Amino acid sequence: MLGKAIGETLEQQGTDTLRLVRREVLAPCEVRWKPSAGELDAARLEGLAAAIHLSGANVSTHRWTEAYKQEMAESRVGSTRVLAKALARLKKPPAVLISASAVGFYGNRGDEILDEDSPAGQGFFPELCTEWESATRPAEDAGIRVVHLRFGVVVGPGGGALARLAPLFKLGLGGRLGNGRQWMSWISQSDAVASALFALENPALTGSVNATAPDPVTNADFTRELGRAVHRPTIMTAPGFALRLALGEMADEALLSSSRAVPKRLLDAGFTFTHPTIDQALAAALAR
Questions:
Q1: How would you write the chain as a 3-class SS string?
Q2: Of 23, 59, 141, 256, which is least packed with CB atoms within 10 Å of its CB?
């Protein structure tokens, strides 16, 4: 969802792009790689201006078995390490590597307001995010500017959380998760794309950057606004104990966890949000 949108935006701006693909190469703009096996034709990457890495198995669509947790880790940490090492060995490495991370770095923090200087939380996903970000070290050691975009929930058309939630809400089956008091850090798709391109072009940005809207909302607020956007009631509730029974560890770390992250570094650098509030983001996403 996000990688496609960023690629399309770059191409619309007249920027040539190469895409790393795991399938057979079908076009000259594609480079085959198999990160699980450490395979990448690094010679094709010589002379690039920048690299953007967004890989990661979906967090909230599977029960977190030990096997799936390993897949989540390998798809993030392993692939990032393969790419960072390849970029570090280039004769002409890119000036910048934008590498995805997530506000899951902060863990379950209740009502605490979290900026980029806040420490990592406790649990599987904060530990995974810490390893994910550390995997870029070879690129940093080679002098490449690295930005870790800690994305919140991306609200946009055609994919992500909204693609799963909107059909239920349109049927009047939407409702809060647990008590609804947990904070949700989010960002509109267009602002997520813009923040990535902003990070590419601003050499002062380095390290962790929260890619989240300036107005995080509780799950109850999000539920109410999505119900308003689709003109349906939101009287249903998914009790926390039922979510834990059905989904195990994932329920606590992905659905019931509270993360109130704010984009301090983006705002300090002069970034302007197109959709600073959730009602604006939902209206834009559902209009398409």
A1: CHHHHHHHHHHHCCCCCCEEECCCCCCCCEEEEEHHHCEECHHHHCCCCEEEECCCCCCCCCCCCHHHHHHHHHHHHHHHHHHHHHHHCCCCCCCEEEEEEEHHHHCCCCCCEECCCCCCCCCHHHHHHHHHHHCCHHHHHCCCEEEEEEECEEECCCCHHHHHHHHHHHCCCCEEECCCCCEECEEEHHHHHHHHHHHHHCCCCCEEEEECCCCCEEHHHHHHHHHHHHCCCCCEEECHHHHHHHHCHHHHHHHCCCCEECCHHHHHCCCCCCCCCHHHHHHHHHCC
A2: 23
Instruction: Identify the domain containing residue 211 by its residue range.
Output: 2-286
pTM of the model: 0.95
Please write the tens of the pLDDT for every residue from 55-114: 888 888 788 999 999 999 999 999 999 999 999 999 999 999 999 999 999 999 999 999
Our count of domains for the chain comes to 1
Report the share of the chain in percent with pLDDT over 70.
Answer: 100
